[in-house]
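Researcher: Here's my situation. A collaborator sent me these components and asked whether they could plausibly form a single complex. I don't have experimental data yet, so a predicted model of the whole assembly would be a useful starting point for our discussion.
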Amino acid sequence: MWEVVTIYQSLPALIEALLFVAGTPLTITEICAAADLAADDAKLALRELEAQYEREGRGLQLRFVAGGYQLCTRAEYAPYIESLLGGREKNILSQAALETLAIVAYKQPVTKHDIESIRGVRVDSVLNTLVEKRLIKEVGRKTGPGRPILYGTTREFLTNFGLEDIDDLPQLDADSSRLPGDRKTGK
Amino acid sequence: MSYKVRLDNFEGPFDLLIYLIEKAEIDIYDIPIARITEEYLEHLSGWEYIDLDAASEFLLLASRLIEIKAKILLPAPIEDISREDIADPREELVERLVEYRLFRRLAATLGEIAQREGNIFTKDTAKSADWLPRERPLRGVSLSDLTAAFWKVLAEIPAPSPPLALREKKLNVDDKVEELSNILAAGDSSFLFRELFPTVCTRLEIIVTFLALLELIHRGFVTASQEENFGDIFIHWCGRL
């Protein structure tokens, strides 16, 4: 009995240390391999760690993003962190970038042409920006004339948007293309 | 002017069209094409200048709208008139608009998420290149210090020297004839033809010198001789008659 308690008091601490050093999300597999643990034990310890952060109202929180666990700060401390780090370049995505990103995220894999036909404008430079920001990447080539590049979202996209996986995107319900202003029923 | 600023904010033709539809509180599935086409074209004409690269997409939709409008105005072929399932010419456009509008809304949702997530930091955040340097290079420097420093720099710049006027050398054949006569008369033997041309000179100077030489030969002041083909040409002064 004592042994079990000892293990579960130290395992969360062990995993906390791993997550602190990694910085990026760690998968259960990575944690188990590093700490020589069974997946169930690791999950239990992670749950305990998360509870500790909650219970003690700590500045950090444990989040499950992009298929892994990551230590993050809590949103309410953002102003102080910004003042520590010295102000940030406004790194907000433009409307054009967000529209393009939305199309890639929900319809992936997509070609440049697919995106252009939805948006009605050329998207070359926006695509480059998103690739540079590592939010999207080339995921293959479409078969057919020209073998156009297919784009999809990256792991960084999931991390940046705090998503567990791509299915974690806000859902498109069947009727979500309709707005209250639309009176007639569409096709 | 405000017109242009607002127009430039549209992300594309669909963005503008949806703006017009929403502003007019029209049902997207039953767009009054004539009215919307008119408003759309009105917006385009408000553009102060047309950047063809950016405008072509807007113009493409304009032509599509006019085409749909024309189709609606023209009577349907007689054999189709009794059928109820005549395709609405607006259908394809509406489908694309509805799809675009959906992604525009999803984009807004992603934007909200991005904003929210921007307040949650990870270890990598601190290393990110997005942060501006922390040091404040102007700490302890007052506005008057800056002004004084600026005036000091201005004062140290030497006043520009008055522009140097370069006079164009006027060349004419008569002057050159005079000049060549003096040179040739002063020398006691003959000159090589090529010696008579200044080494650094303009094309015009060469031409004028050559014309002057021809003139001297013509007037009989000078004779020219050549001992072999392509050899040097000797110019001899015969003196004024």
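Model: Some features of this prediction you could bring to your collaborator: Helices of chain A lie at 2-22, 28-35, 39-55, 78-85, 95-107, 112-119, 124-132, 155-160. The beta strands of chain A are 60-65, 68-73, 136-141, 149-153.
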